[in-house]
Design goal:
The model has no long low-confidence stretch (mean pLDDT 87). The protein has one helix and four strands, in the order ββββα. β3 and β4 form a beta hairpin. The termini are far apart. The chain is 52% helix and 14% strand. The longest helix is centred in the C-terminal third of the chain and has 53 residues. It has two domains: 32 residues, no CATH class; 60 residues. The strands form two sheets. The protein has a two-stranded antiparallel sheet with strand order 1-2. A two-stranded antiparallel sheet has the order 3-4. It is an alpha+beta fold.
Length: 102
């Protein structure tokens, strides 16, 4: 794809036929002309990859939330069992004292 640039020395319009070069020489005055001034940045986004990673992260977040919920439920169940076992032990002690076994 051909494009034109202006020579910074003589102002001539120069046609650039090869985009793979960093510089060229002005055909009128011989000045070295930089073709890429590195002032523009082009960013190419792979939208499909962005969506894939986003979905992957959302799934990971959901999995972590479920894991946290399961841990909390297990902890709550453990506390309830300890409370019930403690209550039964106290009840057994009361019955043992009441019947004179202790």
């Amino acid at each position: 794809m051909a494009r034109t640039v202006k020579c910074p020395s003589c102002g001539a319009e120069l046609t650039v036929k090869d985009d793979n070069r960093d510089f060229m020489f002005c055909e009128f005055c011989g000045t070295k002309v930089r073709l890429d001034d590195y002032q523009e940045t082009h960013r190419y986004v792979n939208e499909a990859e962005v969506q894939r990673v986003k979905a992957e992260k959302e799934l990971e977040l959901k999995r972590m939330e479920m894991e946290e919920r399961n841990i909390k439920q297990s902890r709550d169940t453990g506390f309830k069992l300890m409370f019930v076992a403690g209550g039964l032990f106290i009840l057994m002690l009361i019955v043992a004292f009441a019947t004179g076994m202790l």
